[in-house]
């Protein structure tokens, strides 16, 4: 049996194989648009997410406004979330030491920053880096409030990828979590937060 197997494999290996055809790499790696931030806002809104542009000075107040509108009382957050973002009147559970799954699941939502954002696709990319925390924090709660700085927005996917470390745990978020069945009935909140709210900080 071993001899027959070896004979068959040897015959297969002896079959000449063509060299793979070269893959053209002449696609665009950078694009220019008049207003990348405006394009990002427009595309995020297309995904049924809520997005608002704010200034650096008014960011803490606008975070408070978002939480007040939803009647939020308990939020989880990465341990390095800026103190000024932790709105008074809301109970903050920082992920240090790491929160259990049940603690994250029982929270009203999560507040994070982002690694980079893509204007053309309206996508936010998280890499578990600064102000983002573990991936679980942004996948389990039903509400995600995300702060994106204008200088984190790139126009195209290739430009965004150049700012990312491929060895990190990357999560690409394009609107609230949603899926459709064969009859195209949309169901939200299956694979992540049902509600995504984005505050874009103009620099």
TrEMBL record:
Residues 105-201 form the LUD domain. It comes from the Bacteria. It holds the Pfam family LUD_dom. SUPFAM superfamilies: NagB/RpiA/CoA transferase-like. PANTHER family: LACTATE UTILIZATION PROTEIN C. This is LUD domain-containing protein. It comes from Saccharomonospora glauca K62.
